[in-house]
Amino acid sequence: MLVEDVLTFMNVSLSHPVVGAAETSTGNLGVVGARFIMDGDEYSFILEGQWGFWQGGDVAFAGPGDLVYKPRDVWHTFWNATDRPGRLLEIISPAGFDQFFVELAALVTSGPVDGDAVAALNAAYGLQVDPNGTARIAAEYRLVTVPR
Fold first, then answer.
1. Same domain, 19 and 85
2. Which of 46, 111, 121, 135 is most solvent-facing, going by the fewest CB within 10 Å?
3. Are 116 and 129 in a shared domain?
4. pTM of the entire predicted model
5. How far apart are CA 112 and CA 12, in angstroms?
6. What is the residue range of 118's domain?
7. Shared domain check, 44 and 7
8. At 104, which helix (H) or strand (E)?
9. What ranges in 16-130 are assigned the alpha helix state H?
10. What are the per-10-residue average pLDDT scores of the chain (148 residues)?
11. Are strands 41-48 and 87-93 parallel, antiparallel or unpaired?
12. Which of 49, 58, 55, 57 is nearest to 81 (CA)?
């Protein structure tokens, strides 16, 4: 078997954003094995539960072992699609945008959220927020958007 047959990354796109666990490639790297599933961008790897993903006008659902591609510069959001607990691993590669979440957490935990500070943080990272789109998706999928 040729190395190229084993060491391949998934061809993900908005038309095929979910990579099923069975669709991934594995390879033997000597003393360790590996699963090859992505190149650089933003992904959600589903650990538990069922998750919904809205991206560029389309909705996809994913479950445990699935990988969901979320390209940069395409408006997207995601949610736990059931009333049971769900867990996912968020992967952002190459690094950089991950710091947005670190800075956002600092704003949220420092007291009442300052809307201007959040807007400045969004602008610093080139993030566009669509409150109307978020509200529409939340209503359609009956999502809870504030802590109870």
1. yes
2. 111
3. yes
4. 0.72
5. 39
6. 95-148
7. yes
8. helix 98-109
9. 98-109, 115-124
10. 44 80 69 63 92 93 94 89 90 83 85 90 91 92 81
11. antiparallel
12. 49
